[in-house]
Amino acid sequence: MDITSKDIKRISDIAMMQSGIYMKSDPAGDIKYLQVKDINPRSKPDYSRITTVVDRGIGDQYRLRKNDLLFAAKGASNYCFLYDGVVEKMVASSSFIIIRIISKDILPEFLCCFLNTPSVLNKLKKSSVGTGIQVIPQSVLSDLQIGIPSMQTQQLIVQMDQLRREGESIYSEINELKRSLQEQLLMDSLK
């Protein structure tokens, strides 16, 4: 990868960031309210199960847009999630930092891969604050530096990440089938 010093940027140079919004769930709500519990970073969320809130003048800056990144900054499990824009009216809870890319030099998928890299997550966790629930401050995420390769290299890294995740999913399914077969054989041997 060919990255020179001029290609290194702080996240705040390439994206706007803000915390999500805290709201009380309301079954009669008219806008979806995405919470950490709704996301499994390894799969797509089931949007039909997400709770709703009543829109009492929620600002546009809180409404999620396609390709917004949601960084789970609170708690023991930190990760970045790329919002696909499937649901038109959606806001994120205050457990997330919303990252909206403003630079044309970086793909949202690439930044998401970068923020999900174990070494980056470990670095961010070391900067977390709080006695009960650990929180990664937005300022720490904002100051994080990233090397920005060419678009072609970014696309290649994103494709490799997608293939890796698909491989992990297939491997997991194979293990589950093996476990199920073993259990069936054991149960059959008891008959």
TrEMBL record:
<keyword id="KW-0540">Nuclease</keyword>
<dbReference type="InterPro" id="IPR052021">
    <property type="entry name" value="Type-I_RS_S_subunit"/>
</dbReference>
<dbReference type="GO" id="GO:0003677">
    <property type="term" value="F:DNA binding"/>
</dbReference>
<dbReference type="InterPro" id="IPR000055">
    <property type="entry name" value="Restrct_endonuc_typeI_TRD"/>
</dbReference>
<keyword id="KW-0255">Endonuclease</keyword>
<comment type="similarity">
    <text>Belongs to the type-I restriction system S methylase family.</text>
</comment>
<keyword id="KW-0680">Restriction system</keyword>
<dbReference type="InterPro" id="IPR044946">
    <property type="entry name" value="Restrct_endonuc_typeI_TRD_sf"/>
</dbReference>
<keyword id="KW-0238">DNA-binding</keyword>
<feature type="domain" description="Type I restriction modification DNA specificity">
    <location>
        <begin position="8"/>
        <end position="165"/>
    </location>
</feature>
<protein>
    <submittedName>
        <fullName>Restriction endonuclease subunit S</fullName>
    </submittedName>
</protein>
<keyword id="KW-0378">Hydrolase</keyword>
<dbReference type="Pfam" id="PF01420">
    <property type="entry name" value="Methylase_S"/>
</dbReference>
<dbReference type="GO" id="GO:0009307">
    <property type="term" value="P:DNA restriction-modification system"/>
</dbReference>
<dbReference type="GO" id="GO:0004519">
    <property type="term" value="F:endonuclease activity"/>
</dbReference>
